[in-house]
Amino acid sequence: MTGALLREPWLARAFDSVDREAFVPRAVWLPVQDGDGLWQFVDRDADPRSWARAVWDPYRSVITQLDDGRTPPGPAAGDFTSSVSAPDIVMRKLHHLDLREHHRVLEIGYGSGYHTALLCERVTSERVTAVEVDEKLADQGAANLKAAGCTPELVRGDGLLGVPPRAPFDRIISTASLRRVPRAWVGQVARGGLVLTPFGTAYSNAGLLRLTVDGDRAEGRFVGEAAYMWVRGERPATGLRISGNPAVRPSPVDPEQVLGGTYLQDFAIGLQVPDVSYSHRGEGARRRVQFVDESGTSATVVTYADWWEPGAVRAWGPRDLWAEVTAAWTWYEEQGRPHLTRFGVTSTPQGQHTWLDDPTHPAGH
């Protein structure tokens, strides 16, 4: 995909002009965990060839921070919280942004500054505003951009709030995933402008959403796939506050059918149960899956073995989350397993809703 997109003249020029290596730290992790649950760690000084291969891998990002910076360089486990995105997804995002030379751009999450530098190559530094919430990342990115001769307006703060003094923008692009389109962004985009962001749910984080803004309304489709870390203010909540005895019943369907599908299936289900997350426990005959809602007041556990037996499903709290998930899966099957790009989002002052094919057709059962 990257090679095809580089036929766009401005993308090719930007890719050639910006030295990607200058924006990648000496020590990075790679998104492949070994049998011990550790990220693959690469140090440029110790293994310059492996580091260079990682930096230029078209389809694999390099992780530049774990656990919001609490994890020092070295072999480690943890959640990755900042990266330099792979060239392929960077180019696909910039392609979908439809960026013209005269546009004013707001970037959410500038991190190392690499993506920001590409924007500056297209519209000049004067038309780029970029926000970063992490103090250490902000300082590193600012230093990288200065060394590269880029001078965009850099703001340290919560990107979900936008940058009102610099508005209106023709384009807003996010380098992290979110679950709700911030109304602040809609209000800071000029009529006819675009918002491009990775988008997901607590259940599945896999979409690239492009919205067109018309006054106080933003609407558009998913234009592809994109799995990014969450904007910090949009991370799904965790924790349980349940008590009492569960309601028990058999499952109406083999859990493997619902949970063994593709990420496209998961994404479609997630749009219907956006506040539900799941995790697996145990192996073999003890394998089970636990669903939790974001409020922490409902949880459901389903066993894979003997799923038809009366006690296979145990539901605590006011919601039977397995019933909601299986209803979403049934709807997805009945609709002919629609591709991610058939779904869309509408955001208005009254709220946000997802749809299939047309804004008048809500996505859901």
Instruction: Specify the oligomeric state.
Output: single chain
Radius of gyration: 22 Å
Helix- and strand-based class? alpha+beta
Going across the major beta sheet, what is the strand order? 7-6-5-8-9-10-11-17-18
> Helix content range of the residues, please?
10-25%
Q: Treating each run of at least 4 consecutive H or I residues as one helix, how many helices?
A: 10
Envelope shape: globular
| Intertermini distance | 35 Å
β-strand number: 18
Low-confidence stretches: none
Secondary-structure element order, N to C: HHEEHEEHEHEHEEHEEEEHHEEEEHEE
Sheet-strand content, in percent, reads: 25-35%
| Main pleated-sheet profile | 9 strands, mixed
Average pLDDT, all residues: 93
Description:
With 365 residues, the protein is α+β, with helices and mostly antiparallel strands. Helix content is 25%, strand content 30%. The chain has 10 helices and 18 strands. It has helices spanning 2-5, 9-17, 48-56, 87-97, 114-123, 135-147, 183-187, 255-259, 263-272, 321-334, and strands at 27-33, 39-43, 62-66, 80-84, 105-108, 128-132, 153-156, 169-174, 189-200, 205-214, 217-225, 247-249, 276-281, 288-293, 299-303, 313-316, 343-348, 351-356. The strands form 4 sheets. A 9-stranded mixed β-sheet has the order 7-6-5-8-9-10-11-17-18. α9 packs across α10 (321-334). The longest helix has 14 residues, at 321-334. It is globular. The two termini are 35 Å apart. The model has no long low-confidence stretch (mean pLDDT 93).
